[in-house]
Amino acid sequence: MTAPEISEAAVKLEGVWVSFNGVTILEDVSLTIEAGRYVGILGPNGAGKSTLLKVILGLIRPQRGEARVFGEPPEKLRHHGNVVGYLPQRPLGNPRFPVTALDVVLMGRYGRIGLFKRPRREDREMARRRLEDLGISHLADRLIGDLSGGEQQRVFIARALGVEPRILVLDEPTVSLDVCVQDDIFEMINTLREKLHLTVLIVSHDIGAVARHMDDVVCINRRIHVHQPPPIGRLGLESTFGCAVEYLFHGEIPHRVVKSRDD
Amino acid sequence: MIDLFTLGFLQRALVAGILVSLLCGVLSTFVVLRRMAFIGVGISHSAFGGVALGFLLGVDPLWTGIGFALMVALLIEYAQTRTTVEEDTAIGIFFAASMALGLVFLHLSRAYNVDVFGFLFGNILAIGAQQLWQILVVTVGVLAVILAFFKELVFLSFDEEMAWVSGVPVKALRYLFLVIMALVVIVTIYLVGIILVSALLVIPGAIAQNLARQLKTMVWVSTGVAVGSAVGGLMLSYAIDFPSGATIVLVLAVLYLLTSGLRPWLHHR
Ligand SMILES: Nc1ncnc2c1ncn2[C@@H]1O[C@H](COP(=O)(O)OP(=O)(O)OP(=O)(O)O)[C@@H](O)[C@H]1O
Ligand SMILES: [Mg+2]
Question: B209 — contact with chain A (CB < 8 Å)?
Fold first, then answer.
């Protein structure tokens, strides 16, 4: 499945430490993700998954260590405006914000469009196509705050895809989505990934889905845990989650673990 | 009616009122969407310290007022991003301190004869040619900046993190917006006075949010409401001999109550 060519590292973290108010959230995290991989990130609540993504995006500067995305520091990379598609964990801050679903997806194009320019017809068509991909083109002209939780979530996934990014970073994309759509979306993202050679990072609590759809699994709980590939051992997950996860995890599902360094 | 417009100071008052309310209307949309109403209160009240300093030093209170408003605006932003102080706590402290400073300056200057009352409650009829020029420059500058960065301002008001990731100069625009607020607050003081400035920064946007379902419509409605209330309020105050600033704000407040009552009907079509 992976091309035999020499792939450049999409994401490279080296010895990253992050702490908030003296509490260490990420401890000496090193991680390399090759371009074009489909990576799931697992871990219990408060483990530092969103924090890890924000370090990769440049939203949080690590106290120690460094992050590189396609060889560049993320705070430089952002100026390209079209490399990263991001779905925040709670994307809708103000439910009364008077914008339509289509407007929201168009915002994903703003970095590409650049300063002092307006969205053009191509951008609108692109945004509509992304809504179609997510099965919500009929909601294009509805206000974002009037949509159901799952519909909103799909709009924000469409926005991340609307960037036409090289790397897609999704923080819990399937919360509040119904079961059928969950699988569809993971599949659709996979199709896009193969077609466009996207690198995809997804935080999810759905261990089954992660194991079913993704190439690589990163387990994180303050530190990055390495477990023997393949398959994910139950013990590995249990040491990440600190509780028995058997009920979430049926059978031994084959997967691979990304190159990573602990200790 | 014709008489009313041929009088020089009334013409100036009207032009000033239209320009200032136009500015406030446009800005108000963002103030409401970014939930910065209290920052507006803080910046406008802290201008009092600067205005009083102007009296003390004998310089145009516009400059010292802008200085104080800017300083407090930037302090609030700094306190919010760099320390653990809550934003509303920081605002409460800084604007109270700035007003207290203003009282001390007034005391020192013993300038009770100057028009302190006019600065506190607005005296639009006292606007001279110089003030009108200041207002014009601020209006053109601020509208140009907002127009140039409209798309980015909307994006960062909606989702600051994604805007940052998409390369929007979030930090620069946040500061720029505060500078704009400080400038607009100062010129609005001519119209309604320090105490009532925040009303013009908040109520037009709030009314527009009641009426409009689209962002661009909201900006137009907010601007229209602000200009309409300023002109209407000025004429009404002239007709019934009420204080003009207070009349404008009361017109806005009544419109807000009316549109809030209408909201359930407007949004059930
Ligand atoms: N800005 C912040 N200030 C202070 N503490 C923070 C901040 N951001 C995160 N934390 C803390 O860091 C820890 C990790 O947070 P993070 O959001 O990364 O967890 P997560 O793994 O994404 O959890 P969840 O599954 O609940 O989304 C939490 O204990 C949280 O309280
Ligand atoms: Mg999280």
Answer: yes
pLDDT exceeds 60 at position A248? no
CB < 8 Å to A58, chain B: 164-165
Which of A:180-219 have CB within 8 Å of B? none
Average pLDDT in the A140-168 region? Answer: 95
Share of chain A above pLDDT 70, in %: 83
Q: Do both A68 and A30 map to the same domain? A: yes
* B39 located within any domain: yes
Report residue B87's pLDDT band, with 50, 70 and 90 as the boundaries. Answer: confident
How many domains does the structure of chain B reveal? 1
Closest residue by CA, ligand 1 atom 1 = A20
**Which amino acid is it at A47?**
A
Distance CA B51, CA B59 (A): 9
The ipTM assigned to this model is 0.88
A10 and A79: one domain?
Answer: yes
Q: Are residues A71 and A44 in the same domain?
A: yes
Considering the domain architecture, whether residues A143 and A216 belong to the same structural domain is answered as no
A93–B159 CB contact, under 8 Å? yes
Q: The domain that contains A38 carries what CATH number?
A: 3.40.50.300
Residue nearest to atom 8 of ligand 1 (CA): A51
Cβ-contact A105, A155 below 8 angstroms: yes
Our count of domains for chain A comes to: 2
Among A41, A49, A171, A241, residue to substitute to test ligand 1 (most atoms within 8 Å of Cβ): A49
B217 neighbourhood in chain A, CB within 8 Å: 98
Helix A149-162 / helix A179-196 crossing angle, nearest 10 deg? 0
Same domain, A4 and A67: yes
Mark whether A79 and A174 lie in a shared domain. yes
* CA–CA distance, A39 with B33 (Å, rounded to integer): 36
What is chain A's mean pLDDT, rounded?
85
CATH number of the domain residue B235 falls in = 1.10.3470.10
Q: From ligand 1's centre to the CA of A26, what distance in Å?
A: 10
A174-228 residue pLDDT tens: 988 888 888 888 998 999 899 888 999 999 988 888 878 888 888 888 888 654 4
A11, A68: one domain:
yes
For tokens 């924090």, name the residue. A51
Is the CB of A118 less than 8 angstroms away from the CB of B212? no
Cα(B138)–Cα(A230) distance, integer angstroms:
65
Q: Which residue has the tokens 């004429």?
A: B235
Backbone angles phi, psi at B237, to 5 degrees: -65, -35
Residue range(s) defining the domain that contains residue A205: 1-83+169-179+187-229
A13 in Cβ contact with A69 (< 8 Å): no
Q: Is A164 exposed, middle or buried (0-12, 13-18, 19+ CB in 10 A)?
A: middle
Size of interface A-B (CB pairs under 8 A): 81
Query: Which residues form the domain of B205?
Result: 4-262
**Cα of B209 to nearest chain A Cα, Å:** 8
Choose which residue among A25, A220, A221 to substitute to test ligand 1 binding: the one with the highest number of ligand atoms within 8 A of its C-beta. Answer: A25
